[in-house]
Design a protein that fits this description.
Blueprint lengths: L1 H27 L4 E7 L1 H4 L6 H4 L1 H9 L3 E7 L17 H9 L3 E5 L12 H15 L7 E6 L12 H19 L2 E4 H5 L14 H16 L2
Parallel strand pairs: 1-2, 1-3, 3-4, 4-5
Helix pairs in contact: 4-9, 6-7
């Protein structure tokens, strides 16, 4: 009987050790770094057959692995400017940024701001600064990346490449410098992808993956 108890005690001790180690491993596992992908239809995945699988934030999440958690907070047709025809500021995705409580925010806005009835250089600069300041109220303060817009290979809906090059990009450059923020150059990085922008503005699956690779490279430094 005593030998039986000794065996049981040994088994219990063994099981307890396994349980303790399992709990320790789970508790030591780091919490994923959360990335909020802020943007317009290019971020949301307009034109893609299955946005939930091939939009750039989803591909980014897959590329970065379990250490990161990327969330698609893109909303089609939105502008950065508060006086644009559909400001990102009033979209539910804007509120979701704060609910998500990200460690990193990637801002890819400005394409819809190039429409002639939307574009105002002063408003764009002021509202971009206001957006950065607003996101920096999140505690602890997130790391913010600013993206140059993707090239506009063919004008559509008033969206045009000239304003991207001569208006939006210079404004983002100044804002990044003033705030000491890193720029992700999607314009230069995607300039050879014209064949993968079927309507001249929105990337297909291949270009969305190329975009995700550029963002992943900036975040990881690889």
């Amino acid at each position: 009987m005593r030998a039986f108890n000794i065996v049981n005690n040994q088994e219990f001790a063994h099981l307890f050790l396994i349980f303790f180690l399992s709990v320790a491993i789970v508790s030591c596992k780091s919490t994923p770094i959360k990335i909020a992908c802020v943007g317009d239809s290019i971020t949301e995945g307009h034109g893609l057959a299955v946005q939930s699988r091939t939009a750039y934030p989803v591909v980014l999440d897959s590329l970065l692995g379990e250490e990161y958690d990327a969330l698609n907070l893109g909303r089609s047709a939105t502008t950065l400017q508060k006086k644009g025809d559909f400001p990102y500021w009033i979209a539910k995705e804007f509120s979701s940024v704060f609910t998500f409580h990200p460690d990193i925010i990637v801002i890819k806005l400005g394409t819809n701001d190039t429409k002639p009835y939307n574009w105002n250089a002063e408003n764009f600069t002021n509202d971009y600064q206001a957006l950065i300041d607003t996101f920096l109220t999140i505690s602890p303060k997130p790391t913010i990346f600013l993206c140059y817009p993707a090239p506009v290979f063919r004008s559509n809906w008033g969206i045009n490449d000239s304003t991207v090059v001569h208006g939006v990009i210079p404004a983002i450059s100044s804002i990044a410098e003033a705030n000491n923020l890193q720029i992700i150059d999607l314009y230069k990085g995607l300039i050879d992808q014209s064949v993968n922008f079927p309507d001249g503005i929105h990337p297909n699956e291949e270009a969305a993956r190329a975009l995700a690779l550029l963002v992943a490279g900036a975040i990881t430094g690889k």
